[in-house]
Amino acid sequence: MAKKYTTPYEVAYYDGDITRRMTIPAMLAVVIKTSEEQSDALNRGSDYVASFGLGWVITNYEIHITRLPRVGEKINVTTQAMAYNKYFCYRNFWIHDQQGNECVLIKSTFVLMDQENRKMSSVLPEIIEPYESEKITKIYRGEKIEKIENGQFLPYRVRYFDIDGNQHVNNAIYFNWLLDVLGYDFLATHEPTFINVKFDKEVEYGQMVESHYEMLDDQDQIVTRHEIQIDGQIYCEANMTWKKSQ
């Protein structure tokens, strides 16, 4: 069975929004840091991966939210590199509260990207073996992302501080664009219960992106559909379900 790695974390004031709930970008930054800590402990950190001319890139998140942690709360973040095939690596993250209750489950898909030609590389045994992940042949296909049918959008410019060490927009930044379009009143009174997001193409410094969205309201829940577009091409797409905050 693949090795698990757990680290404690106290949610800081800068991790929260006006409701004092942890934001999605802050949460993702913390869980990714946990995976990096595990990789470093296994001597498979970013420098080791870069020695092959490669870097890790996230292509999908499925985020199941029971509740978002709150500012000042102490949580435990656990990660496990579950399985891999020729091109895709599947890693789970869990956030538990101090009573051991699961707050969030994140299922993620990673690929290795050639830093020179920005093309996907096959998974190297030297990199993946220490995690003791299960080798599989099938490709995990998550829930289908429904397309926007009648949406609207807001434009955003890619800033210098949106770019990370991989020379493209950090994945957490996409969520600023995806969520901000929903507006103050909605975000202050609703919280997500499920997020399914797919990153299709890399966004670079100076580009202008359009954050398209559509909101569907039924009796049980609110669903939002999202697309990040540049010049009519989709760079990121997502579906989210929401509930009213208590």
UniProtKB/TrEMBL annotation:
> What SUPFAM superfamilies is this protein classified in?
Thioesterase/thiol ester dehydrase-isomerase
| Gene Ontology MF, one | fatty acyl-[ACP] hydrolase activity
Annotated Acyl-ACP thioesterase-like C-terminal domain ranges read 146-244
KW Lipid biosynthesis (keyword) present: yes
Alphabetic keyword roster: Fatty acid biosynthesis, Fatty acid metabolism, Hydrolase, Lipid biosynthesis, Lipid metabolism, Transit peptide
Q: Does the keyword Glycoprotein apply?
A: no
- A Pfam family hit: Acyl-ACP_TE
Q: Which residues form the Acyl-ACP thioesterase N-terminal hotdog domain?
A: 3-131
Q: Which family does it belong to?
A: Belongs to the acyl-ACP thioesterase family.
The name this protein carries in UniProt is Acyl-ACP thioesterase
Organism per entry:
Candidatus Enterococcus mansonii
